[in-house]
Amino acid sequence: MPVAAVGGRRFLLLTHACFVGMLLRVSGSTLARAGLGGFCITSRIAPPSRPAVAAFLPTLPTGRRRRIHSASSSSSSSSSTSPNDGISPSAPSSEYTGTSTTRRRKRTGSGGPKLSRDFVGVAKATDTGRFRAYSAEQFIKGASGLPVTSKERPYFTVLGIETSCDDTGVAVVRSDGVILGEALASQYQIHEQWGGVVPGLARDAHASVIDSMVQEALSKAGLANAGEVDAIGVTVGPGLEICLRVGSETAKGLAEKYKKPFVAVHHLEAHCLMARLGQPLVEVEEEGLREEGGKEEGGVASTLPLARFPFLALLVSGGHCMILECGDVGRYRILGGTLDDALGEAYDKAARLLKVGSGAAGGPAMELLAREGNPKAVALPVPMKGKKNLNFSYAGLKNAFRMAVTRVRESQGGGEEGGEEGGELDHQTKADLAASFQNVAIQHLEDRLERAMKESEGRGIHTLAVVGGVAANQAIRTRLQALCEKRTVARKREIEKERAWVEEMEGGGEVTAATAAATAAAAVAEELPAWELVVPPPRLCTDNGVMVAWAAIEKLRLGYSDVLEGQDVHARWPFANLEKKKEEVEAVAGGGESRP
Asked: Pairing state of beta strands 140-141 and 179-186?
């Protein structure tokens, strides 16, 4: 055989060996990173150190990941350990079974860390114990001081700052509910091209206008600087953390500079308390304010119905959808929440499918379009129909709506991308689709609320407050007003039916605990006034500084403020689970009595 041929073969064999070696090295490290097992060819690929173990950790649940890190850092012989030690695919741990892709956890009781899968099917609003919860139990009397009032000066003023998401809101509000001055900077044009809020851009926009917004609100209130207000409140959660910090740091700086009482405000509580804007602590103040026609010293006071504690609240916005009983400031009982999408989020996504509105304006655009359409034009399923809980779910409706839009487009000969004009449907078709979507979305609210109203009546509640950005929707207001009237009539019929049954039982000589309970329940229900709907003005439904200032006022009037030093923000801040505290549940019920 010629020498050249032999050399050529050797060269090919050597090249092939190098290629196989490189392939094995790449495959081993790739498989390890991807979580496809503990395959590794040589220790040079993953040195026996903590990073080597970490390369396999994405395939493991959180609880075991912590134990491996701990074992790795405490082991004195780690330098001679294989990367696969302790992670043998053929010998799974006693706590976890199955392959690395399924990671099934054995149910061994309540011990051990809970994983995300443990909360599947649990409403987002629920306090699961994973985050710090908000409760009146954490309040401190006069922690950073309280406003000084006198007979000559019975009211105090608060500067409120809101930067939890994409609106920079600042307002000066007096303790009787009079809005002295406010300023609002919207970021709609900034986020419009992205189809949603971009946290980094939102933070920068807040930082660029926060000082000017504070000064504008103060100027409208006739004040020279923040030193002339009596206290400062700011939203510290929940929300986008980097956005919350902009407002929090500004408020803390002003409070420290001018030595003012500081109040950390819960964003969702501020929305709920907007139903009480202008609610006095005593009846005399209310009569005086009403006699003056709702205006004083250039300020504006609400003349709408006001909610008294306790009341039922429906909080609907782009990120939240929940039903809760409001027993007092800092005392809330979550009855139900969304399992997936919020109502505002569903509106925005439906608007994108119809190519109407853009970004955060999808919901209002859908509402306007729906006014021109037929709400019965397209059949859509009502979510969770017949379910006996009070939770919401809009993911299924959103998917059904997407398929309905696709079918309509296909029927027009345009396939999934639409008709001859680049996927555009005609205006009337869009209006019918929007009206059908809105009709079912609101029907879902009605179903959940009707059940919640019936349940809350037993605790002496007869007021429904609708708050949050989506509460500005006029169709929702109209339908829920009709629901309140419907529930009032239904309650009277139920009372009559209960009494007829009791009389029939007593006439037959049968008096039992059930008849006694029915009589008592009927007496309580009969004393309740008609259901009343309370909704803030549309401009105060969305995020604004007024709601923050008023929430701070509510806490200050009860004698509470917050420590300034070390005050942090909370991206997640659920309401505390009052079901675990009997005394707090009783406080929510209030014994059937209302506190102003």
From this structure: unpaired
Contacts of residue 15, Cβ cutoff 8 Å, sequence gap at least 6: none
For residue 434 the two structure tokens come to 């929007």
At residue 59, the pLDDT reads: 34
Q: What is the DSSP-derived secondary structure letter of residue 237?
A: E
- Read out DSSP for 14-43? HHHHHHHHHHHHHHHHHHHHHTS-S--S-T
Report pLDDT for 195. 76
Looking at mean pLDDT, say which of 88-92, 386-390, 576-580 comes out highest.
Answer: 386-390
Same domain assignment for residues 394 and 354: yes
Band of residue 191 on the pLDDT scale cut at 50, 70, 90: confident
- What 38-46 contacts at long range (C-beta under 8 Å, 24+ apart), as own/partner pairs, is 38/83, 38/84, 38/87, 38/88, 38/89, 40/83, 40/84, 43/82, 43/83, 46/83
Domain-located, residue 401: yes
Nearest to 52 by CA among 83, 10, 96: 83
- Average pLDDT score over residue span 120-147: 87
In terms of DSSP H, where are the helices of 259-341?
A: 267-273, 283-291
* Cα first-last separation, the chain: 106
Residues 258 and 403 in one domain: no
Give me the amino acid identity at 191: H
CA angle 484, 532, 443 (to 5 degrees): 30
Instruction: State whether 74 and 38 are in the same domain.
Output: yes
Contact 164, 547 (CB under 8 A): no
| Strand ordering across the sheet containing 331-337 | 331-337, 321-328, 311-316, 463-467, 532-534
What residues are paired with 172 via a beta bridge?
159, 181
Are 528 and 550 members of one domain?
no
User: CB-based contacts of 333: which residues, under 8 Å, 6+ apart?
Assistant: 324, 325, 327, 578, 579, 584, 585, 588
Asked, for residue 355, whether it belongs to a domain, the answer is yes
Residues 34 and 57 placed together within one structural domain of the fold: yes
- Which residue segment(s) compose the domain that 221 sits in? 136-304+543-578
Which of 84-93, 266-275, 354-363 has the highest average model confidence (pLDDT)? 266-275
- Rounded Cα distance, 487 and 493, in Å: 10
Query: E strands, 163-230, where?
Result: 167-174, 179-186
Q: Does residue 235 register a pLDDT over 60? A: yes
Contact by Cβ (8 Å): 232, 161: yes
Neighbours of 361 (CB within 10 A): 14
Q: Are residues 336 and 231 in the same domain?
A: no
pLDDT category at 454 given cuts 50, 70, 90 is very high
**Can you give the pTM of this predicted structure?**
0.75
pLDDT digits (tens, 9 = 90+) for 144-186: 999 999 999 999 999 999 999 999 999 999 999 999 999 999 9
Does residue 445 share a domain with residue 347? yes
Q: With respect to residue 471, please indicate whether it lies within any of the assigned structural domains.
A: yes
Q: What is the pLDDT of residue 189?
A: 86
